[in-house]
């Protein structure tokens, strides 16, 4: 489904944001640099609080085929701060229930002068299909597709790491938990590799790690104490409750015993290691509250930076019309 | 329920838009001319893209007693482009479930300084009731009431026909399908007659055509090949799935066999005939994809013109306060 | 849960609005005076219609943990008129269903640069918890918590009484109905007492009046004719349908017989007495339509003033950042 660089123009500029995979390092860096302009000094950036007119008169459509109030809200806020008009469409409750096809829906919304689609879909690849299909002036941002990618989450994670660690090229980063089902982990791994992180580790039980991680340059650990040893960054993943009811895991308590991030476990990492989580957290399942609310947690910074990164992506793609 | 011209002021200006029936030709033409100012040159109009301040500070309430994300979205976009503030109220989920009457709801919203109600209701006549009841500064736009009327759809269809055919007075227009249950068909027939179209045809099975069409000046056909012969415009109607389960029709496949618009059937019309559909389409039921996506289809133009026509109606009624 | 004045700054200025209880008279009066600037001359105020830029660039989050389209709409309109950006979050349908705690949700939204939370919650005290927890620049407005308080309703009722009666210090005010379950009644009683109303009466059946009303300085009546005698203001309460199915009341018809406000009963009050109701009304249960729509009813004025009072509260709290 992915041919060449479907998200880049011939000049190498970002037209859509579909995945972090294959995104050139200078494009990633340009997004992070742009985002810094939307972070206020109080938050460690150079930007001013308030609205900017970059997307005034533009129509941004949040097309959420899968419900996610939290992610939709971050995109809606980002668009509002750019002065865009926002339409929230919960697609399950509308046309497709009348039997209209995905592409007919996209055709119709494009004909209403949509300028940007923010797409969340349970099926991997849906944002690609939409990007290939829609008219040239429309931009598509993937807000999570199946198990495949969640590129703005990956980019905001990179912003957060750069903010606290400055340089990527001397870091060890551990990703812990249900990597098998996680589009966040997939986007993080591609971004970390692109930015030159020398050691990326995956920590989790065999049932929750995909095969082939080594081919992506990732070191695999099943023992958490061993995996956390000396790391600079710990990215915890959310354990979906539905995994617990299946055969993959015995129980939440059992999981926490082996893979929950406690202060004692975190002590295995470097003393200045930071702890990240894409949210929403399952306290007491994958993370202890003492860590989640502790001095090494940068989880709420991630949320703040996430608005800025989404503003950056929206303003960059909207600037490249062909 | 309809006395005199409930939607016109004493000076003959449009105060509400409730139905196309009885609307003077010069009012219809004024709406279409105004809409042209909101269509961009790229789309064949004279307007500029972007927001205009005509409804700045005004509050538009979308009162959808019947769910229709598509229609609600078009009105919301139109209102946003006019710089209005928009409130979307799904009324089923709110006050009326607490036993509040329709008119109490209207009273309350009017007391909140509503300037305009866009009303969709499953019962014919509900927008009239609201227009008669609300205070003088409030305007009502019918976004579809029962089987009765869908005037903005009728008007955008007229805009589309005028755009492609220029002159109404030498046209033959065929409306095909479930005319019995269609408020779109009813609004189209009134508009076409008002604008001087000499021949309007209705094509469909006996079970889906209302009696008395002849009294409206409409020629009735049950054979599609015969009905399409030499027409300039084909307006296809959506076949509601619920009709199939009743006794009215044997099956979707059977329907398509007799009344589906295929390239072969379309060849019976004039070579430059245009094909319209109010959407959402049932591909393979009332229309073949080769036609829907073919060179004679103007279905997506209808969507684009629909935004402009709704902007025109909103700005015209808001300009006449008495 | 309430220590000191959790809603006031050290300088005695309003930072949050959580309850009317304990709010100093000058703060209440300042809110009412400010609201008058948002009421137009046609409605009896000094303000201009339209938008004001007081909250431009601010993000207001409507956090409705309990559904109330009507109340949410009034806050959304108030925020729009102040030029704020508004986010509507129906929290049941989102994060908390993924097991995220209330405080994690608040942390996340605060990290997205929320400036104000308008909170509706089925549990008494939830807005306090949020106010204690959120960062210093964030303001909380209670839009109704359990049976505890509904302060903006209390304040708009005071605005309405002041508008029609000018002076509080010579009034007799009767509150009629289900006071036991009513946060409106609780807020009204505190506000009336604070503003110096010499006689507040509670009228209702024993099963719907809480104990201890006398300690709040309220005179209790079980006979409506007696209780209404000579009053200046009648505040009717909504009778929740769910009360009828329990053991508290025999039937709606029976309730109306003893406590429904009819023209005959209203004649017991002063000739210029006004009739109020927080809405939505149960016509024929607690109030007769002849009264609801009669010359003494100021129920729709309450709605209009409610927008102005909510604008006043929002602009006042947003002006005091510490």
UniProtKB/TrEMBL annotation, chains A, B, C:
Per its record, the protein catalyses: carbamoyl phosphate + L-aspartate = N-carbamoyl-L-aspartate + phosphate + H(+)
The EC number(s) attached to this protein equal 2.1.3.2
Q: Which GO terms describe its molecular function?
A: amino acid binding; aspartate carbamoyltransferase activity
State where carbamoyl phosphate binds. 70-71, 120, 150, 153, 279-280
Pathway it belongs to? Pyrimidine metabolism; UMP biosynthesis via de novo pathway; (S)-dihydroorotate from bicarbonate: step 2/3
Q: Where does L-aspartate bind?
A: 98, 183, 238
Q: Which residues form the Aspartate/ornithine carbamoyltransferase Asp/Orn-binding domain?
A: 170-316
**Name the UniProt record assigns to this protein:** Aspartate carbamoyltransferase
Q: Which residues form a coiled coil?
A: none
Boundaries of every Aspartate/ornithine carbamoyltransferase carbamoyl-P binding domain copy: 15-162
What exactly does this protein do?
A: Catalyzes the condensation of carbamoyl phosphate and aspartate to form carbamoyl aspartate and inorganic phosphate, the committed step in the de novo pyrimidine nucleotide biosynthesis pathway.
Q: Which HAMAP family match?
A: Asp_carb_tr
Q: Which organism is it from?
A: Pandoraea terrae
Which family does the record claim for this protein? Belongs to the aspartate/ornithine carbamoyltransferase superfamily. ATCase family.
Q: How does it assemble?
A: Heterododecamer (2C3:3R2) of six catalytic PyrB chains organized as two trimers (C3), and six regulatory PyrI chains organized as three dimers (R2).
Q: Which PANTHER family match?
A: ASPARTATE CARBAMOYLTRANSFERASE (PTHR45753:SF6), ORNITHINE CARBAMOYLTRANSFERASE, MITOCHONDRIAL (PTHR45753)
Q: Per UniProt, which keywords does this protein have? A: Pyrimidine biosynthesis, Transferase
Record-linked Pfam families: OTCace, OTCace_N
Give Gene Ontology CC terms.
Answer: cytosol
**Which is a GO BP term held by this UniProt record?**
'de novo' UMP biosynthetic process
**What InterPro entries has UniProt attached to this entry?**
Asp/Orn_carbamoyltranf_P-bd, Asp/Orn_carbamoylTrfase, Asp/Orn_carbamoylTrfase_sf, Asp_carbamoyltransf, Asp_carbamoyltransf_Asp/Orn-bd
Question: Carries keyword Transferase?
Answer: yes
